[in-house]
Design brief:
- It comes from Pedobacter fastidiosus.
- Keywords: DNA damage, DNA repair, DNA-binding, Endonuclease, Glycosidase, Hydrolase, Lyase, Multifunctional enzyme, Nuclease.
- This is Endonuclease.
- With about 240 residues, the chain is an alpha+beta fold.
- The chain has 2 domains: about 5-110, Alpha-Beta Barrel (N-terminal domain of MutM-like DNA repair proteins), CATH 3.20.190.10; about 115-235, Helicase, Ruva Protein, domain 3, CATH 1.10.8.
- It is built from 6 helices and 10 strands.
- The chain has helices spanning about 5-15, 110, 125-135, 140-145, 155-165, 180-200, and strands at about 25-30, 45-50, 55, 60-65, 70-75, 85-90, 95, 100-105, 225, 230-235.
- The strands form 3 sheets. A 4-stranded antiparallel sheet has the order 1-6-7-5, with no helix packed on it.
- A hairpin with a 4-residue loop joins strand 6 and strand 7 (about 95).
- The longest helix is centred in the C-terminal third of the chain and has 24 residues, at about 180-200.
């Protein structure tokens, strides 16, 4: 599942096409969740990203694309996989595969809270801290995946920032010292931008300290378990990462 930085990369790749409010001259794909005819001859006002959502913004509605587990896209190219949604402009085309497509009535700025997007300029760390404290019984491994607090954080980012912060994934928010909560918030932001940089360099996996690793950087064995109420895969070092209780 693409995490927030990967959606930012898609937005930047489209920006390199220098499309200025392009008109859609052809709509293709087997998408059933939207009326494709509504897109035809519409002018796109903006391409945006919010967390794991890629947004195609029109005057009075927004197309949301979620890549789920196996979604992909191609710019000015196609592949044999069944096309979910294809948009053709005068000189370029965007093709989306194995993804979820929805039409949301209204403008993106009304529909989304940009202060919760870990990659956005509007990101508000104080708001994130406040929301964490409102859910004291949550395991940290669960709440880091809450897209209403950390939009864009996925399982890779979760595991890596917990190791960076030296926090065991089964620590509860109520047991974390205030300094640790601030450190966690800080690392969530910093690692997301490191992820973006390494993803662009195609070196992301070379920098993983615990995710899909057998040993941590200190040479201790990595444990791999489905933890928390979400039962998402966690990679952690029980020696380096302290369980607060």
């Amino acid at each position: 599942m693409p995490e927030g930085p990967s959606i930012v990369i898609l937005k930047e790749l489209i920006a390199e096409l220098h499309l200025h409010k392009p008109e859609i001259i052809e709509v293709a794909g087997n998408v059933k969740t939207i009326d494709k005819d509504r897109l035809l001859h519409q002018k796109i006002q903006e391409f945006r990203s919010w967390g794991k959502h890629f947004l195609i913004c029109f005057n009075d509605f927004t197309i949301r694309i979620h890549f789920m587990l196996f979604g992909t896209y191609l710019i000015n190219d196609t592949k044999k996989t069944a096309l979910k949604l294809g948009l053709t402009f005068k000189k370029d085309e965007l093709n989306f595969y194995t993804c979820k497509v929805d039409l949301l009535e209204g403008k993106a700025d009304v529909l989304y809270d940009w202060t919760t997007d870990i990659m956005a300029d509007e990101w508000d760390s104080k708001k994130a801290i406040k929301k964490l404290k409102e859910d004291p019984e949550s395991y940290v491994c669960d709440i880091l995946l809450d897209q209403h607090i950390f939009a864009g954080v996925g399982n890779i980012i979760k595991n890596e920032i917990l190791y960076r912060s030296r926090i065991h994934p089964l620590s509860k928010i109520k047991d974390l010292p205030p300094a640790k909560i601030k450190e966690l918030i800080k690392e969530a932001r910093h690692y997301s931008f490191d992820f973006l940089k390494w993803k662009k360099e195609n070196t992301l996996s070379k920098h993983w300290e615990v995710y899909s690793q057998k040993l941590c950087p200190n040479g201790h064995p990595i444990e791999k378990k489905e933890l928390g109420k979400t039962h998402r895969q966690s990679y952690y070092c029980s020696i380096c990462q302290k369980k607060y209780d």
